Amino acid sequence: MKVINRIISRRWRPERAAVVGLLATTAYSIAMEGDMSITGNRFSDVRFIQGLMGARAATLKRFLLFAWILHMLNGVALAELYAAVFKRFLPGPDWLKGAIFGELFIVSAWWLTPLADKYHPLIQSGELPKLANRTSFIQNIVRHLVFGLALGILYRD
User: Fold this and answer.
1) DSSP secondary structure string, 75-137?
2) pLDDT score, position 57
3) What does pTM read for this prediction?
4) Which of 35, 67, 85, 143 has the least CB density, counted as fewest CB within 10 Å?
């Protein structure tokens, strides 16, 4: 129990982190829609999640709603991790801590993109573009920067 007490911040406010996670994910989603429009690269995290539910789910609107819910819950989970553990270990002012957290997340997960390109059903069918390329990487860097900045600015413990 002592180890957990050392890892979890005593200043963590789970309710606040959850609300901020929803707000930061909303900001991320706006950035996502905008960058798809600007770049023409239509890689959508929500469609990616929907495609993980199977070929039939990828065509049904109720699964699109479920994918949006999962997308938002993922943002809440990341906000909770940030607030409970990572914020106190990151350097600088809150906005920088959030930005670093967002960027560390995407950089640490990016090595999985070749697997997504190889196995994801919507990427295989061409409904989603490949993920392991420069445009998708830049889009994800920007999206996670927006998420992290919103997280850092809005979460106060």
Assistant:
1) HHHHHHHIIIIIGGGS-SSHHHHHHHHHHHHHHHHGGGHHHHHHH-HHHHTTSS--SSSHHHH
2) 79
3) 0.93
4) 85
